[in-house]
């Protein structure tokens, strides 16, 4: 390699946007939710696991940046070996490499702190988490990770436009949206809107074959204590049957809502 | 020692979500024998703070900065938390409340527990009931830190008045530079938002097209309700994405949820389950929503809804 080549090599290296997408392994929406061991643990028997939908919106956006800008996309999850099928799926969708931090986390803080340990070792320009996971719905990993890294965080992110270091982002707020300017490095909480459902990438055979060859590294966790622990689970009490009102009896419905349900 | 609540406001007055958080914080403060300290930005209206039991209120004047600034707001709250040596901090579950909570928790070395639906069952350590699996279950979670930030689910505790005499303190709005800058806010101002609404009226594919949405809007107007829609409706572009409620859309925890022409897919039900009373109007008696609803009418929305709107209008006049 001549000095000139070396210089070009460095330039290219510097220009590659390095993206980390944080993935959560969650039960499929249609799963029956049951608990075991005296209601202290989630019963995974018969449960199909999927990529957390909010994370998948974020991953898809990252893959677009890879395809258009040549960004490098790493996916990471904090979990035991049972999470590997969804990491392989992320690789089949197009991620370049996968990391698994080998730990069954107790809470969102533990996840964020383990991820921060990774991000302190390797610089990522853009870190994408989902708005929230559909199992524990904590909605905390992105904000905590960003704060631990002293990076800005945009929650409920519905648009992301990157032009060199300048970033245009939009955040969904109650009753509208907020338009922001940001710079890399940045952490976002992805949700629908960042990409649409129809944009999600279904892995093809080539992707699935390639995924087998891509690196999936298992990393030992740091020693970090969780900030909380779940003691017990409980299912809501069974709801009574619906009270049907005749389509001609609108007064009857209003009466029920006013005097029985007391919501009018 | 104190209990800290972040009281959201609009145009100088506390918002309902802020007053619910104050009610909840007051109950914790009473249980622990501590004062209730509120934090807010540009709040000028004090009557509500007195009516909901706030003892001390740190008001941060943002000096003309009208936009929400996550870095400065979280820093301001964290500073009050440290100053007051608070062990319990409560935020709402609005989009800003849920945005600030985890950041404040890290800044103040606290545990963060979201989706809280009841008062703590114990205080040392804090143990509290939360929803999980998108409202399909609850759990009891214990904080393992000395300080805990709780994000209270909307409408789960309700408003409880308790008279106090608030002492107003001028808080210092921290000056922090950030690479994150709000450029503009696009907000539908003449309508109540889904997060703030007591009643939500939601439409699905059964309405056949966006041109029929006046049915939903008219009913919502009579009820002072927010309008919402199902996922297919927002996917087809009939309604903006911000109205989509469900698992990947907005969560709803209203007192009354009226679903019109919504079949009730499991993802939709997951998102609206936290609503107290659910009403369904649908032509198909086999629609899954009837299994989730409290009251239902099997009938044509185009006939039933205008009648319901008329009757409710007559009732309010």
Write down how many β-strands of chain A occur, each being a DSSP E stretch of 2 or more residues: 15
Rg of chain A is 22 Å
**How are strands sequenced across the largest beta sheet of chain B?**
7-11-6-1-4-5-12
The tally of domains of chain A stands at 1
Q: How does this model look, in words?
A:
The complex is a heterodimer of chains A (264) and B (317). In chain A, the strands form 3 sheets. In chain A, strands 11-10-9-12-8-1-6-7-13 form a 9-stranded mixed β-sheet, with helices on both faces. In chain A, strand 3 and strand 4 form a beta hairpin. Chain A has one domain: 3-Layer(aba) Sandwich (Rossmann fold), CATH 3.40.50. The longest helix of chain A has 17 residues. In chain A, 31% of the residues lie in helices and 29% in strands. In chain A, helix 4 packs parallel to helix 5. Chain A has 264 residues and is an alpha/beta fold. The N and C termini of chain A lie far apart (78 Å). Chain B has 9 helices and 18 strands. Chain B has 2 domains: 169 residues, 3-Layer(aba) Sandwich (Rossmann fold), CATH 3.40.50; 118 residues, TPP-binding domain (Rossmann fold), CATH 3.40.50.1220. Helix content of chain B is 29%, strand content 27%. Chain B is globular and about 60 Å long. In chain B, helix 3 packs across helix 4 and helix 5 runs parallel beside helix 9. Chains A and B meet through helix 2, helix 4, helix 5, strand 9 and strand 10 of A and helix 3, helix 4, strand 7, strand 9 and strand 10 of B. Strand 14 of chain A pairs antiparallel with strand 10 of chain B, so a sheet runs across the interface.
Question: Short description, anyone?
Answer:
The complex is a heterodimer of chains A (264) and B (317). Chain A has helices at residues 3-15, 53-69, 84-93, 108-121, 141-149, 205-213, 250-260, and strands at residues 18-22, 25-27, 35-36, 41-42, 49-51, 72-78, 97-101, 126-130, 153-163, 166-173, 176-183, 186-190, 216-219, 228-234, 243-244.
């Amino acid at each position: 390699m001549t000095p000139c080549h070396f210089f070009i090599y460095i330039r290219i290296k510097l220009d590659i946007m390095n993206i980390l997408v944080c993935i959560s392994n969650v039960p499929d929406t249609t799963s029956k939710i049951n608990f075991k061991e005296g209601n202290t643990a989630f019963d995974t028997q018969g449960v199909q696991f999927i990529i957390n939908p909010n994370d998948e919106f974020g991953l898809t956006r990252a893959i677009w940046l890879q395809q258009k800008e040549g960004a490098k996309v790493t996916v990471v999850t904090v979990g035991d070996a049972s999470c590997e099928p969804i990491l392989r799926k992320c690789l089949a969708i197009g991620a370049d490499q996968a990391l698994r931090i080998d730990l069954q986390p107790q809470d969102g803080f533990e996840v964020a702190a383990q991820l921060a340990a990774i991000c302190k070792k390797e610089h990522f320009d853009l870190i994408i988490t989902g708005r929230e996971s559909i199992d524990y719905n904590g909605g905390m990993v992105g904000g905590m990770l960003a704060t631990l890294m002293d990076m800005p965080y945009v929650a409920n992110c519905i648009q992301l436009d990157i032009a060199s270091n300048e970033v245009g982002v939009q955040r969904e707020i109650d009753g509208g949206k907020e338009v922001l300017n940001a710079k890399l490095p940045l952490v976002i909480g992805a949700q629908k809107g960042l990409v649409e459902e129809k944009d999600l990438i279904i892995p093809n055979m080539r992707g699935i074959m390639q995924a087998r060859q891509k690196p999936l590294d298992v990393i030992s966790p740091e020693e970090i204590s969780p900030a909380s622990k779940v003691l017990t689970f409980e299912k809501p009490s069974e709801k009574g049957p619906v009270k049907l009102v005749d389509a001609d009896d609108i007064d009857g419905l209003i009466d029920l809502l006013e005097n029985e349900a007391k919501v009018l | 020692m104190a209990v800290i609540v972040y009281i959201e406001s609009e145009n100088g007055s506390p918002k309902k979500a802020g007053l619910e958080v104050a009610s909840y914080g007051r109950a914790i403060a009473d249980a622990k024998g501590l004062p209730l300290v509120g934090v807010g930005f540009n709040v000028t209206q004090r009557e509500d703070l007195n009516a909901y039991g706030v003892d001390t209120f740190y008001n941060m004047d943002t000096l003309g900065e009208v936009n929400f600034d996550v870095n400065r707001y979280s820093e301001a709250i964290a500073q009050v938390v440290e100053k007051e040596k608070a062990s319990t901090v409560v935020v709402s579950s609005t989009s800003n409340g849920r945005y600030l909570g985890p950041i404040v928790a890290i800044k103040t070395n606290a545990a963060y527990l979201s989706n809280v639906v009841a008062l703590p069952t114990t205080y040392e350590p804090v143990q509290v009931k939360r929803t999980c699996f998108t409202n399909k279950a609850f759990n009891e979670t214990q904080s393992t830190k000395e300080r805990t930030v709780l994000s209270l689910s909307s409408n789960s505790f309700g408003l409880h008045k308790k008279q106090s005499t608030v002492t107003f303190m001028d808080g210092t709005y921290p000056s922090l530079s950030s690479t994150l800058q709000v450029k503009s806010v696009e907000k539908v101002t003449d309508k109540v938002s889904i997060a703030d609404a007591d009643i939500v009226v939601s439409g699905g594919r059964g309405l056949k097209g966006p041109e029929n949405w006046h049915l939903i809007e008219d009913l919502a107007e009579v009820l002072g309700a927010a309008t919402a829609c199902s996922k297919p409706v927002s996917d087809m572009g009939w309604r903006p994405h911000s109205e989509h409620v469900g698992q990947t859309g907005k969560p709803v925890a209203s007192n009354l949820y009226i679903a019109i022409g919504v079949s009730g897919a499991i993802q939709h039900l997951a998102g609206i389950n936290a609503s107290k009373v659910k009403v369904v109007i649908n032509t198909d008696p086999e629609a899954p929503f009837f299994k989730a609803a409290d009251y239902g009418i099997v009938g044509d929305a185009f006939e039933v809804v205008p009648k319901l709107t008329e009757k409710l209008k007559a009732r309010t006049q």
